[in-house]
Specification:
single chain; 121 residues; alpha/beta; 2 domains
């Protein structure tokens, strides 16, 4: 299992694929490599059951969107940690889809909707 430091509630844990792990480690994040959505769901349940002391768990977006509904409901009720989807870097929805995704993440993290004017301010 993963060891967590005393000030862990301010830490970020990233659940991602092996190919992206090095970049997150270089950025200073704790990283947990998972092979697929099923493994991500299993590890996420274990972390929540253990009461892992991290502030945010960022899950590779393709895995997050594949989590089963009971686990997603549990995530919504459990705080901390805040569990969010981590963008995969792909842009399947174009610029407008990306903007909507970012607004959704802000709403999820802050608790209310934030809007920007047409110039992105």
């Amino acid at each position: 299992m993963m060891s967590v430091t005393a000030d862990a509630r301010s830490r970020l844990l990233v659940m991602t694929v092996d190919e992206l792990a090095v970049g997150y480690r270089l950025a200073g994040a704790d990283v947990m490599v998972v092979a697929d959505a099923e493994a991500a769901g299993t590890r996420l349940r274990e972390l929540l059951d253990e009461g892992v002391e991290v502030g945010v768990i960022a899950v590779h977006e393709p895995f997050y969107t594949s989590l089963d509904p009971p686990l997603l409901r549990r995530i919504e009720r459990t705080l901390p940690p805040l569990v969010v989807a981590l963008p995969s870097g792909e842009r399947p929805h174009g610029d407008s889809g990306r903007r909507e995704q970012l607004l959704q993440r802000l709403w999820q993290a802050v608790g209310y909707e934030i809007t920007f004017d047409s110039e992105g301010r």
